[in-house]
Structures are given as structure tokens and as C-alpha cells.
């Protein structure tokens, strides 16, 4: 029996860390800035564990009974945590209060578990053996959770199913302890009934978790959610109304089918039309294939390399009939090579090859710099590496958020590109779904606005492109810090400016 209790340490340690990772992931999905969210969630969780450990000194009798109650409570609260966070995101006065309240409750309960087990087992092992075994199993469980979470749980189960599953594991520990130590536990029948009811409830939640997520996302998004998937990198959601198809990554709108042509024509054609016979093209991001659709309108293009981190994105937009009709089946083009890899790492490797590839045009169509992981793709380090795959006539364009709402953020991108020796040509376009949206062209030689474009474009004309390069006084250039890897000023600008806008 003592050895079985020791083995349970692995289970409860795994469960405890999984709940922590779920909270951090949900916060980063919903609030952005993953480093801040994980840092504050981990700090709050560990502090709460300390409180839980301290509270155990007030428990004197029926320690096994207390242990069972704690397992039931942590199983229910932890098991329902992801569902609560996702369902209530838009329906509570302060999501952060809810987040840290749930994290704190779980942390206190998890903090009680190990001290209670140590006290329960203190007469069954020598102290040195007891401490070494319990802590070794505890750390082993943490390792197991840290590997299991990104490689299995998120991609195959998602947050809601994972939390219900591990809640069930906590309840399982309580149930087998109840049956193994039946005679040592007062009110064991009430405990059994409570544990069984909790197990039934969590099992029901696990089975119907997809419907729960549909309810959660249906309340969070306008329109009908027709696709949702959690990958190791992001949460992908696609919604549809009568005439509009929308893509959201981690709750942030990426495009609306009603007006995405404005964004993608503006991203692509001022660059492609300015080049003479562009043959070799690089797209960083752009896994939806919409920028590629515009690039392939130039017959001179011979090869396109797309570096997009998430294989789920490129697979989805190359196989779903509704989405391939939107991107013109561009991801199925024989001219395309897709590389699912971190673009920062790929560029460093490509630029340092003995004969690095040289691209006529580079399109950086990645999400906004809302966190430090994405922010590195806007840094001086990245742009310096990027110069290694350019020639004197190559053009680079970077989507650069809104110069109206996030003025400092936009000009930080421009100033950072200029800081590495690129000549910049900033411009903007009005996209109804986003508002005023900005881009920055960078090159090693002077950029000239083109006057001829492919036939059949819906927005871009010589006149509209000329207008794109004019900035009204409320969007005009401002001095900013430079975005560097060791001081990501852009991420701070972005978070501050967009937070103020959303609050307003």
C-alpha cells in the first residue's frame, strides 16, 4: 500500500503541471504575449502551492481523508479549468481575475498533496528514503507532463479534453485510495459517492468536450464556427456567415474573405510589379495561400519557397475545398515548396550555406508582434540574416500592423529595417476588417513605385498605389526604439497601443 501511494505521486505531479500548462496556454491564446502569461501563471501557481504547503500544518487528524478530499477537489477544479476559462472569456468582468483565481485554487490544492503524503507515509519509510523517493517521483511526473503536453495533449486532445482527462486521473487516485484503505477512512461511503459523482461528471465533460468547445467558440466569435483545431503552435478557428469566411489564430483575426483581396493585393503587387522578371520568391508565413495566389499571377515566377511554422495551416488550406477555392488552389502549385519550420532558424541556416539561395522578392506575412516568439521575426538579427539571401535588386515587404492605431509599432518596424541598412518605403491600405493597415518595403537599392499591374485586380491600380505611400499627419513618422532580440521594444509598443485601443 505504501508503495502504491508513492507511485501516485507521479500521477498527481503530472496532473498538477498539466493544469498549470493548460492555464498558461489558454491565457496566451486569449490574451497574447505568451512569455508574460506563462511567467505570471507559473509564478502565481508556485506561490499558491507554497500557501497550500503552509496550510497543511493545521491538519492533524484523518490525513488520508483530507488527502482524498484534496484529490477530488483538484480533480474537479483542474478538470473543469480549461472549460471555464474558454467559456467565460467574454462573460466575466475580468478574465485575468478568473484566470489567477483558478490558478491559485489549483495551486493551493496541489501544494497540500505532497506534504500530506509525506506525513501519511512518515512511519512506513525512513525519513531520508521517504523524502528522496517522493521528490524523485514528483520531478519524474513533472518531466512526463512537460513532454506529454506539447507532443500529445495539445495536438491530439486539445485543452478541454486534456483538462477533463487529468481531472479523471486525480479522481482515480482518490478512488483507489478509498478502496485500498477503506477501514482507515471515516465517512468512506460519502467520500466514495462524491468521488464517483465527480468521475461521472468529468467523464461526461470529456466525451462532450467538442460540443463544449463549440459553445465556447460560438459565443466568442461572430458567425458559425466551422473549423477549430489546437496545434502545438496555435489555436486555429474558421468562422462563416452568409457571405464571409474568417480565419482566427489564437483569437486574432487574420483575414475576412469579404475584403482580404485588399490586404493581399497591397502586400504583393507593389513589390512584384516593381521587379523585372521576378523568378525566385520567398514567403515567410502566409500559410493560407492568399499571398501566394497573387504572386502566381506573374508568369515569370519559376519557384516559390514558403516557410510556415505550422503544418496544420498549410495542410488545411491545401485540402479543404472551401479554402482552396478562396486561395485559387495556390498551395497545390508545382512551383511551390513548403517548409514547415521556424523561419528564424531557417533563414539563419539558409544565409550561412556555402551557396545561399537568393530571392528576388521576400514576403513576410506573419502574425502581429504580440509576443516575443513572433517578435524575433521583426528584429535586427532577423533582418541582418535576411540580407544574406537578397541581391542588390531584391525587395522585401513586411506586414507591419496599423499605423493609425499602433503608430509607434508601425514605425518601429520601419526604423528597425532602416537600422540594418535597408532602404525603406512604408505604405498603408484601408482594409475594412482591420482598418488602416501598414506595410514596409525594404531593399538595398532605391524603390520606385510601379505603374503597371496585372489585369483583373480588384483594388490595386496605379492611382491607389500612389495614394498608399502618403501618410496623413496622424500616421506620420515617429522616432522609436529599435527592435532587438535582447530588448523587444516592438512587442511592448504593440501590447500597449492595442490594449489602449481595445479598452477605449
Q: Look at the structure and give the CATH class of the largest domain.
A: Alpha Beta
Order of helices and strands: HHHHHHHEEEEHEHEHHEHEHHEHEEHH
User: Would you identify the CATH H-level superfamily of the largest domain?
Assistant: Vaccinia Virus protein VP39
Number of strands: 11
- Percent strand equals 5-15%
CATH topology of the largest domain: Rossmann fold
| Average pLDDT reading | 89
In order across it, which strands form the biggest sheet?
A: 7-6-5-8-9-11-10
Question: What is the structural class?
Answer: alpha/beta
Uncertain segments are none
- This entry's quaternary arrangement is single chain
CATH architecture of the largest domain: 3-Layer(aba) Sandwich
Number of helices: 17
| Envelope shape | elongated
Largest sheet: 7 strands, mixed
Roughly what percent helix? 55-70%
Radius of gyration: 27 Å
Work out the count of structural domains. 3
Calculate the terminal CA-CA distance, rounded to whole Å. 59 Å
Amino acid at each position: 500500500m505504501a508503495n502504491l501511494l508513492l507511485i501516485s505521486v507521479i500521477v498527481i505531479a503530472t496532473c498538477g503541471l498539466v493544469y498549470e500548462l493548460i492555464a498558461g496556454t489558454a491565457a496566451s491564446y486569449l490574451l497574447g504575449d505568451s512569455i508574460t502569461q506563462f511567467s505570471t501563471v507559473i509564478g502565481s501557481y508556485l506561490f499558491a502551492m507554497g500557501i497550500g504547503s503552509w496550510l497543511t500544518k493545521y491538519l492533524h487528524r484523518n490525513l488520508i481523508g483530507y488527502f482524498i478530499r484534496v484529490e477530488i477537489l483538484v480533480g474537479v477544479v483542474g478538470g473543469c479549468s480549461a472549460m471555464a476559462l474558454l467559456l467565460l472569456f467574454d462573460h466575466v468582468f475580468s478574465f485575468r481575475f478568473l484566470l489567477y483565481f483558478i490558478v491559485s485554487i489549483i495551486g493551493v490544492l496541489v501544494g497540500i498533496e505532497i506534504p500530506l503524503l509525506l506525513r501519511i507515509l512518515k512511519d512506513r519509510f525512513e525519513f531520508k528514503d521517504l523524502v528522496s523517493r517522493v521528490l524523485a517521483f514528483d520531478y519524474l511526473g513533472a518531466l512526463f507532463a512537460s513532454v506529454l503536453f506539447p507532443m500529445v495533449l495539445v495536438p491530439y486532445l486539445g485543452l478541454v479534453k486534456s483538462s477533463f482527462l487529468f481531472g479523471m486521473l486525480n479522481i482515480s487516485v482518490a478512488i483507489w485510495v478509498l478502496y485500498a484503505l477503506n477501514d482507515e477512512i471515516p465517512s468512506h461511503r460519502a467520500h466514495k459517492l462524491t468521488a464517483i459523482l465527480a468521475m461521472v461528471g468529468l467523464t461526461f465533460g470529456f466525451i462532450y468536450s467538442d460540443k463544449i468547445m463549440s459553445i465556447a467558440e460560438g459565443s466568442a466569435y461572430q458567425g458559425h464556427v466551422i473549423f477549430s483545431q489546437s496545434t502545438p503552435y496555435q489555436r486555429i478557428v474558421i468562422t462563416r456567415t452568409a457571405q464571409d469566411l474568417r480565419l482566427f489564430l489564437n483569437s486574432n483575426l487574420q483575414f475576412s474573405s469579404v475584403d482580404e483581396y485588399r490586404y493581399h493585393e497591397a502586400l504583393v503587387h507593389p513589390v512584384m510589379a516593381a521587379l523585372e522578371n521576378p523568378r525566385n520568391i520567398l514567403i515567410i508565413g502566409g500559410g493560407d495561400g492568399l499571398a501566394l495566389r497573387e504572386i502566381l499571377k506573374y508568369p515569370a515566377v519559376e519557384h516559390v519557397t514558403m516557410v510556415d511554422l505550422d503544418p496544420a495551416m498549410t495542410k488545411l488550406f491545401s485540402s479543404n475545398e472551401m479554402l482552396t477555392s478562396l486561395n485559387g488552389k495556390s498551395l497545390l502549385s508545382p512551383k511551390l515548396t513548403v517548409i514547415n519550420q521556424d523561419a528564424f532558424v531557417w533563414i539563419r541556416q539558409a544565409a550561412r550555406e556555402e551557396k545561399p539561395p537568393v530571392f528576388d522578392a521576400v514576403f513576410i506575412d506573419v502574425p502581429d508582434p504580440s509576443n516575443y516568439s513572433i517578435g524575433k521575426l521583426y528584429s535586427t538579427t532577423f533582418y541582418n540574416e535576411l540580407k544574406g539571401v537578397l541581391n542588390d535588386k531584391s525587395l522585401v515587404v513586411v506586414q507591419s500592423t496599423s499605423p493609425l492605431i499602433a503608430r509607434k509599432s508601425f514605425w518601429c518596424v520601419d526604423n528597425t529595417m532602416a537600422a540594418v541598412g535597408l532602404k525603406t518605403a512604408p505604405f498603408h491600405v484601408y482594409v475594412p476588417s482591420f482598418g488602416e493597415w501598414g506595410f514596409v518595403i525594404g531593399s538595398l537599392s532605391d524603390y520606385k513605385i510601379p505603374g503597371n499591374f496585372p489585369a483583373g485586380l480588384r483594388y490595386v491600380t496605379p492611382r491607389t498605389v500612389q495614394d498608399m505611400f502618403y501618410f496623413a499627419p496622424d500616421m506620420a513618422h515617429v522616432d522609436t526604439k529599435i527592435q532587438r532580440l535582447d530588448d523587444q521594444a516592438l512587442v511592448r509598443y504593440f501590447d500597449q497601443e492595442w490594449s489602449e485601443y481595445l479598452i477605449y
